[in-house]
Request: fold
Amino acid sequence: MDFDYVIIGAGSAGCVLANRLSSKPQNKVCLIEAGPSDISPYIDIPAGFLKTVTSRKYNWLYETEPSLGTNGRSIPTPRGKVLGGSSSINGLIFNRGQRMDFDNWAQRGNAGWSFADLLPHFKSIETYIPLKSNSFRNPIEQNLRGNAGEMVVSDLSWRDPLCDAFIKAAISMGMPLNNDYNGVNEEGVSYVQRTVSGSRRMSASKAFLNPIKNRKNLKIITNAHLTELLFNNCKVVGIVYEKSRFNPKKAILKVDGEVILSAGSINSPQILQLSGIGSGHLLRSLNINVRKELPGVGENLRDHYATRLTGRAKNVKTINEMSRGFSLMGEAIKYAFGRPSILALGPTLVYCFWHSNEFHRNNDLQISFTPASYALGRQAQLDRFPGFSIASWVQRPESSGWVKIKSNDPYEKPRIQPNYLSAIEDQKISIKGIKISRKLMNSKELSPYFEYEVYPGKEIQSDDQLLQIARERSNTAYHLVGSCRMGPVSDRTSVVDSQLRVRGFQNLRVVDASIMPNITSGNINAPVMMLSHLSSKIILEELKQNYL
Reply:
């Protein structure tokens, strides 16, 4: 069967694209996913992220290259390998980012990508359900949010004394209470907004695929590892995939229309490089024929790098204790009967958006709080004592890195180097973020519940010591972007144009987080779904023009 559109990757971008492109019955659409289906309680239950974030079944389990910024560590870098992609294993946060993020994209020469251009597309993907206490105060606020999109976005209803105290502490430090950081402005503190419907995760698959998966013009193929793009000069004419390295029987799909890479910021540049598109020096060193010299493929990789402080709690029960033994059984029973339960919670409950410099209040810091703490050096493993965590990171890091394949083997994991904290400005803001986090931890408002600082410990005081802690302790916030940068033809590091077409090819696009010229100020799931919706409009409009 020949297809009009073959989408590689069923993550946040791919699910939205499959939904929108197959809405036209004349379009034959195929969605390819390397991982399995998303039928799993660990995916449906929000707290299941503790399992999926380390799952070999649902996760690519990437790691970064060691660097000075990580104190020589390799950082585990989870990426979803399942229907829904990373939206099936993430922390469930819905965060658009700031207006300036997208206005900056437009200023870089990407026409049609300012915030004013993108707001209708943000609204089109969501149905926002605020708490009654957070209901809109004026028509302007209401007009900024969507009420008819597939993705359910809800305010966190859980309330916790530690979280309440933290919010009061932030307000006492001058941070305004902001119950809708996706509204008029981002600055302030509040409980988080989540991709949760009732008490169940709303992944991109659940929101955009499930309602339309039986369309006759849509074919979804899981457990299909792309091994090769087939070309005729500058046109993709087909793809080759296998079920696994151990089941190497090849299947070929012919393409009449377009191939769209939606494989994410690691896999999309990997596929391009394996196809001979990228740095000529890299490709020739691996004996790969250079089909198109695009030096920006794999470059400009950016991520949020979070430093987490841990406090020991007193006079209150934290998630650490609730998640063990009979307490956990009780929480499971409450969840089963639709009552408030820790099983309906993600890893972050409260967000602060703030600034490191009072003279330049540009919201360059993000701070998160949760009444739980993680064992030092252990991924997704809670401490045995009552604890809480305050994490901070640079919103718009200047540090950038790369993704590079190691060989022509499509199953070999690429090298990933974000170059965390390589930029001096990122170091300065990170230090400031730790200081603000520590001030919040030691606030009067938290004092009834704060026993002492577990990590890094009060003996760590100087800027040099704090920077070293950031290098030793920080981890990815799972927000990798930028490795197939969108930009004008004058930007030789750009990979795609403002229509997301790969330069030099007739029918090849990239639609995912990798096209972001710069990282957004917050979690990236919301902007990825938005840009995919916009891309579908671009593609369908081009199709319409071709028929005229």
About this structure: The CA atoms of residues 100 and 120 lie 16 Å apart.
